[in-house]
Amino acid sequence: MAAEEADVLVVGGSARSDRRGALRYVADSYVQFFEECAVIPLDGPVGYFAHDSGRARCVEELPAVEYADFMTRPGSCGKVAEYVKKFHPKRVAFYGVHTLSAEFHLSLAERLEDLRMIDFTESLDGIRSVKSDEEIALSQHAVCLNEDVFRVYLKGIEEGSGILDAIAEASSFAMKNGCEDQYWLLGSQGAAPRSLPMAPKKDLLRTDEGGSHVIVLEHTSPGGYFGEVMHSVFLGEPPDEAVAAFQAISRAQMLAGGAMQPGATVGSIADLIDEFLIYEGFLRKEDAGKASGHGQGLDIAEPPVVISGDPAVIQPGMRLNLHPSITLSTGIHVVSTDCYVIEKNGSRRLSALPYTPLVL
Fold first, then answer.
1. Structural domains of the chain ordered from first start
2. Do the beta carbons of residue 23 and residue 50 sit within 8 Å?
3. 193-216 average pLDDT score
4. Cα 238 vs. chain centroid, distance in angstroms?
């Protein structure tokens, strides 16, 4: 804040699973449904503005919060603006332009029109992208939890449970082991993975012999940090082409993992993955350039995005997930995820799933 000459920082968050983590980062507040925000002055008590009076009473217990109040109605910024003005700021930094509603952001800007507002999103995202040792430990636990949940799911399928029954058993296991949020996607054969409410409607819950499906789990461990499992599962012996595609993806991940050294750019890692899959014959040059990974932490997907041209420089403490994918001409979608943390001398793989297709 001082570097950007900001006197007050307003950090907003909503229930979007990909952009609510900043509010938890600065105030340790878990946002469930509605818009809320924290006001952090350079010199003065940290204020928190909750959705309603019940939530305000809850956040009063948070160590970082020194003053708590609630919105008069959703999107209303009157109390927030008045609290900001108490500190007589010249510049107000704001995080949440891409997170909060236009009503919230525009209302706050209007009420603070006599002050200069700056977008602090990129600055705070840059700080959050480099994890502390404690955050890395929480991330490691999250990756392990997701893989354990995945194994419980696979066991249910192997024992003859329907997919929904297997998911129910795995979800129960996750909750009993401290999972805070669950995120499931599922797609059979070449269909794009969909959320569970949509998957049954699209007939994506097939377990017929010889089929395949893609499972995506991005659950949080205690503390709110996400891990990821995205994996192709084959029901019976997979086609040779699918095995070859999975092996190519695995080699691309290992190659990229070895290249994720401090000082390299994220875009160069994406290019390396694309070039390898083109060389192996599984990607056309004209189809290259799609994202093949992303950061992760208190949000399900955080900057940087592993995509060609991204200039973000890899630093020790970054958490990156790599999940290149291949869609075969038969419609089979082949994918897996490797979760990494960047260390002083390179990357360390957090994932423990084998570099082999999963066959049930």
1. 8-129 (3.40.350.10), 133-359 (3.90.230.10)
2. no
3. 70
4. 30
